[in-house]
Amino acid sequence: MTTTDARPADPLTPDARALCDAMAAAFPPPEAGAEALRSAARARLGDIPPAPTASANGVPVRLYEGREDLVVVFAHGGGWVLCDLDTHDRTCRALADRTGATVVSVDYRRAPEHRFPAAEDDVCTALAWAADRYPGRPLVLAGDSSGGNLAAAAALRARDGGGPPLAGQLLVHPALDHRLEGRSAHDFAEGYFHTTAHMRWYWRQYVGPAGDPAAASPGLTADVSGLPPTLLVLADCDPLRDEALAYARRLSGAGVRTEVHLHTGVFHGFLGGTGVLPEADAALEGAAAWLRRLGG
Fold it and tell me: Is 7 left (phi over 0), alpha (psi -120 to 50) or beta?
């Protein structure tokens, strides 16, 4: 009798696996601390072309002026701790180029120096500023990962606090639920670049020992009705996948026009792989097409 040592097939595409492993090898574990993680996030950025900056009522923003009416207020990811305007410059430029929209990239305050709700406050301030600067133009909130959390939270606050009306919200693999109880948080806890351990660490930095993580979790809000049309762009091999799918179901059940673009064979952060991963280019073009429809 002969036996074979059967191994489960890798759910990532070969190109995604190669990129995932390269990114993971250059990224420290959470116990390395905020500064080490920030340095890793900014490594190999290359030259950043100049773009206009402004003060959005005290919050720094970078502007990518477009030819169309649509205005996208964008919050970058990075676990509320890492990343900045530079790390997401390519993404914002690509959105502006592919849609003609004006993109307002928000340099919100980061944890742990500034805990919840500082970042959320800054995104809301930038949104109000954008509404004043571009009166009458359709407004969209957008963000990836922790930035998706901030976009979703700002949309809720705009709804509840009489904020500017929104044409939509674009949430790219958003962090919506601090509990991390979905099956995906177990299945993709390690080996897919963004680990569940990193995400738990990010939540601790953002909320702090005395904070209420539920209050910072848009996915746990009691009422999701009355929110604008929503697109969720998700990676199948992502610890955050299931909480985003749960939010999509809640939105749809509450009558919110909701789309989910679930990309298989890729991992959390794959959108940064444009030009390398066909799935990243397809995801970006799908999001851009959705935004163009909102802009009319």
Answer: beta
Q: Are 56 and 104 in contact (CB under 8 A)?
A: yes
229 vs 169: CA distance, rounded Å: 6
How far is Cα 1 from Cα 102, in angstroms, rounded to an integer? 66
Q: How many CB atoms lie within 10 A of CB 180?
A: 18
pLDDT digits (tens, 9 = 90+) for 16-47: 999 999 999 999 999 999 999 999 999 989 89
Tokens of 285: 């073009």
pLDDT tens-digit readout, 245-278:
999 999 999 999 999 999 999 999 999 999 999 9
How confident is the model over 231-247, as pLDDT tens digits?
999 999 999 999 999 99
Residue 239 Rama label (left phi>0; alpha psi -120 to 50; beta): alpha
Residue by residue, DSSP assigns 83-152 as --TTTTHHHHHHHHHHH--EEEEE----TTTS-TTHHHHHHHHHHHHHHHHSTTS-EEEEEETHHHHHHH
CA-to-CA distance for 236 and 262, rounded, in angstroms? 6
Hey, which residues are catalytic here?
145, 238, 268
Is residue 71 helix, strand or coil?
A: strand
